[in-house]
Specification:
Layout (H helix, E strand, L loop, with lengths): L9 E5 L4 H12 L4 E5 L3 H13 L4 E3 H7 L3 E6 L5 E2 L2 E2 H5 E7 L6 H4 L9 E4 L2 H6 L7 E4 L15 H7 L8 E5 L8 H9 L6 E5 L4 H4 L1 H8 L5 E3 L5 H7 L2 E4 L4 H7 L3 E5 L15 H4 L6 E2 L7 H6 L1 H18 L7 H10 L1 H7 L1
Parallel strand pairs: 1-2, 1-4, 2-3, 4-7, 7-8, 8-9, 10-11, 10-13, 11-12, 13-14, 14-15
Antiparallel strand pairs: 5-6
Helix pairs in contact: 1-16
Pfam families: Glyphos_transf (PF04464)
GO molecular function, one term: CDP-glycerol glycerophosphotransferase activity
InterPro entries: Glycerophosphate_synth, TagF_C
């Protein structure tokens, strides 16, 4: 613990380094003096988390130190409740008021599971998550938008210079590929066909945050292929979306980031995704395939033709505009302000309801 037995009013449970990107815009709005992070990852992730916390002067404490001290944060923010501890959810052991800060829209069997009932407030991206969480009758749902992408709407970067830093040719169109991990990952089924487009396009592959520890063999395979850049460390996807012409995703959260930012989105299908333990047939990343253009592994040889179909992308733009209304509150560029206000005023909100 960097400040022995010194705790703050607001705690953020952090179990993976990628959460620095996810929570970061809200931390900026709260101010460094208002919160501290509770480090609760694997030894591998904890090392990365501690390095980022020190580099950014963010107060931190190890979760075991919080438990040992008996301290309860008046407000505890987490993206999910993690494992149970002594028969209770971990967040309930170390916090009084529980806030879930939604991390993603995909993998519905996980994201809309019964453990959501332990939260007093859930900060949702928009109407869809509110509706799916209706079963949490005693939980307050607040629509915040998607804070991690606030900067996208105001950032001014030299896109050519940024592309060159990644080894890309600014004269080519850029494909951003964001595969998930485990069984729903598109890496094994699509890497070979995608690599064949590397002469015509810049191809940036950014792997799932947990793949670095759990699936190093998949990352190694990608680095041995002729992709322009392979990113496996913590990296703010907002910059990658900004310079991309097309975004390719399989399942999980990134496809909704592309939808939120209105990027040309192509979905890569995996056989029987509804059987996955985290997804299920009613998972939104499966349901959106009724409207968002997608492709099966057997047709992967047609990837190039789909990308070249300008009429298709023009049609898809209207589809995306409609879907954004379903999935997101219209707080484009200021979602972090909405979230920060809710967190700072959590006690008042809970008492009023």
């Amino acid at each position: 613990m960097n400040e022995k037995h010194t705790f703050k009013e607001i705690g953020f449970l952090v179990h993976t380094a990628e959460l620095f990107v996810h929570f970061g815009p809200v931390w900026e709005k709260l101010g460094l003096d208002a919160f501290q992070i509770v480090v609760a990852g694997s030894p591998f992730e904890n090392q990365r988390i501690l390095g980022l916390a020190k580099n950014n002067s963010i107060s931190y404490v190890l979760v075991n130190d919080v438990i040992t001290s008996g301290y309860h944060y008046p407000v505890m923010v987490s993206n999910h409740s993690l494992a149970e501890y002594a028969g209770k959810s971990l967040v309930s052991i170390i916090g009084i008021h529980q806030i879930r800060f939604m991390y993603a829209l995909g993998k519905g069997r996980h994201n809309f599971a019964d453990w959501n009932r332990c939260y007093d407030i859930i900060l949702c991206f928009g109407p869809y998550q509110v509706e799916r969480l209706k079963f949490c009758e005693d939980t307050i749902k607040i629509q915040m938008g998607y804070p991690r992408y606030d900067k996208y709407f105001s950032m001014q970067i030299d896109e050519d210079a940024f592309l060159k830093q990644l080894g890309c040719d600014p004269g080519k169109e850029t494909i951003l590929w964001l595969p998930t991990w485990k069984d729903l990952s598109s890496i094994d089924l699509y890497a070979d066909q995608l690599s064949k487009l590397s002469g015509e396009y810049n191809i940036i592959a950014k792997t799932h945050p947990l793949s670095l520890e759990a699936e190093p063999h998949k990352i190694e395979r990608l680095t041995e292929m002729p992709f322009t850049a392979v990113i496996s460390n913590v990296f703010d996807n907002a910059y990658l979306y900004k310079v991309s012409d097309y975004v390719l995703c399989d399942y999980g959260g990134p496809l909704f980031g592309a939808l939120y930012l209105d990027k040309n989105l192509l979905l890569l299908n995996i056989p029987n995704p509804g059987n996955d333990e985290l997804a299920g047939d009613e998972s939104p990343d499966i349901l959106v395939r009724k409207d968002i253009v997608n492709i099966d592994p057997d047709d992967a040889c047609n990837l190039g033709k789909i990308l070249e179909n300008k009429a298709l992308w023009e049609e898809q733009k209207a589809v995306r505009q409609d879907m954004r209304k379903t999935f997101f509150a219209p707080h484009y560029g200021f979602s972090s302000e909405v979230a920060a206000l809710a967190i700072k005023n959590a006690g008042t909100i809970i008492n009023a309801c």
